């Protein structure tokens, strides 16, 4: 269509002028070259700017920790001392078990310990006066230690009837109810750490080498935007996808973010010189290489470029030197090696 219009325009002078003497017909190749040289392509002069290079990835959020609290002894649950969804501190009581006769046993063990201590002291005094055999002293010392161990074990059992939180966090789940009997090592509660959230995103193997520990990541989650730092980079890829897991930790003191949410992340990997151009002014070669068409001495050249960042209207690419003449509107009608006539946007 464009070529036909250009050809008609080129032939218009011959229609109004007198018919000249016959001349040899020009070759088809000459006509095409003439048309290309007459077609004016829009162009811009490249002025690179400092652009933050980002790697975009998707993933999900995780709690900083998830602790399952288990009971150390078996017993009947007499009280649930905390509510699901509440914020708890380290040491807070979650569940109370029936202590049974443990208080009485402890009082008896304390009395036995006092008796054993007095017997040991008497044996020591008699030994000084040579009224006690060495074997008796050893026996009294052993009796005292046995009484002390028994008292300590009973006190530990009593303490274990109160199941306390080992950490501060959110009481996410209670696995038991009052009146139930719980066995040793059964889970009683799950506590989540939400002051800091970990975001796990998957990064292609082509980009993983650009990411470093400490890189800043901007995370978009349910309309909320937060920043965090890269704290972990997987050393081994996923066997199925050949992607690498990257962890970004971010503050969540206001509890606005939750674990298990889908996220979009942009990880800043440094600053690079790049130029913003419309995607329509770029082309892809047969082997998949992204290129831009530039003019050098009025000849079209293909220059490989790499995408640094994408915005709503522009693509920022690296690989173009400052002051390069980048062909834009109409570049699709010229090819590598063609002679080109262009008009700079600033000169139009």
Walkthrough of the structure:
With 348 residues, this protein is an alpha+beta fold. The model is unreliable at 1-30 (pLDDT under 50). The chain has helices at 2-16, 28-38, 102-128, 134-159, and strands at 40-45, 49-70, 75-80, 87-88, 93-97, 162-164, 169-174, 181-182, 187-204, 216-221, 224-233, 243-251, 262-277, 282-284, 290-296, 299-304, 306-310, 315-318, 325-327, 341-344. α3 packs antiparallel against α4 (134-159). Among the domains are: 2-6 and 37-47 and 278-347, conserved putative lor/sdh protein from methanococcus maripaludis s2 fold, CATH 2.40.420.20; 55-64 and 195-270, Efflux pump adaptor protein, beta barrel domain (Elongation Factor Tu (Ef-tu), domain 3); 99-160, Helix Hairpins (Orthogonal Bundle). A hairpin with a 5-residue loop joins β14 (282-284) and β15. The longest helix is centred in the N-terminal third of the chain and has 27 residues, at 102-128. The strands form three sheets. Strands 1, 14, 15, 16, 19 and 20 form a six-stranded mixed beta sheet that branches. The protein has a six-stranded antiparallel barrel with strand order 2-9-12-11-10-13. The chain has a four-stranded antiparallel beta sheet with strand order 6-5-3-8, with no helix packed on it. Helix content is 23%, strand content 41%.
Strand content is 35-45%
Low-confidence regions: 1-30
Question: Oligomeric status of the shown chains?
Answer: single chain
Question: Which structural class fits the helix and strand makeup?
Answer: alpha+beta
The CATH architecture of the domain at 2-6 and 37-47 and 278-347 is Beta Barrel
Radius of gyration: 41 Å
Overall helicity: 10-25%
CATH topology of the domain at 2-6 and 37-47 and 278-347: conserved putative lor/sdh protein from methanococcus maripaludis s2 fold
Largest sheet: 6 strands, mixed
Which overall shape is indicated by the principal axes computed on the Cα atoms? rod-shaped
Question: How many beta-strand runs?
Answer: 20
**Secondary structure tally, helices:** 4
- Average pLDDT score: 86
């Amino acid at each position: 269509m464009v070529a036909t219009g250009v050809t008609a325009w080129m032939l218009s002078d011959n229609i109004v002028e007198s018919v000249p003497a016959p001349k040899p017909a020009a070759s088809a190749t000459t006509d095409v070259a003439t048309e290309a040289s007459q077609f004016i392509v829009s162009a811009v002069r490249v002025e690179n700017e400092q652009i933050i290079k980002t790697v975009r990835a998707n993933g999900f959020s995780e709690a900083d920790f998830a602790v399952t609290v288990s009971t150390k002894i078996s017993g009947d649950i007499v009280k649930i001392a905390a509510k699901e969804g509440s914020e708890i501190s380290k040491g807070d009581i979650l569940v109370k078990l029936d202590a049974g006769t443990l208080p009485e046993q402890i009082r008896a063990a304390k009395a036995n310990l006092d008796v054993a201590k007095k017997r040991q002291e008497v044996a020591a005094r008699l030994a000084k006066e040579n009224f006690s055999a060495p074997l008796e002293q050893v026996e009294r010392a052993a009796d005292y230690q046995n009484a002390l161990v028994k008292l300590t074990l009973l006190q530990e059992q009593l303490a274990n009837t109160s199941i306390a939180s080992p950490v501060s966090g959110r009481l996410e789940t209670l696995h038991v109810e009052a009146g139930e009997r719980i066995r040793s090592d059964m889970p009683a509660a799950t506590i989540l750490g939400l002051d800091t959230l970990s975001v796990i995103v998957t990064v292609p193997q082509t980009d993983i080498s650009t990411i470093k520990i400490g890189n800043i990541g901007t995370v978009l989650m349910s309309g909320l935007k937060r920043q965090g730092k890269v704290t972990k980079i997987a050393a081994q890829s996923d066997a199925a996808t050949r992607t690498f897991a990257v962890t970004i930790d971010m503050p969540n003191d206001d509890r606005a973010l939750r674990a298990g949410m889908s996220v979009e992340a942009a990880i800043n990997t440094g600053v690079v010189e790049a130029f913003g151009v419309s995607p329509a002014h770029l082309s892809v070669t047969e082997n998949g290489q992204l290129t831009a068409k530039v003019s050098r001495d009025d000849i079209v050249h293909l220059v490989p470029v790499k995408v640094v960042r994408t915005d709503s209207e522009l693509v920022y690419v690296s690989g173009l030197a400052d002051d390069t003449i980048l062909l834009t509107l109409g570049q699709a009608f010229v090819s590598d090696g063609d002679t080109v006539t262009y008009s700079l946007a600033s000169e139009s």
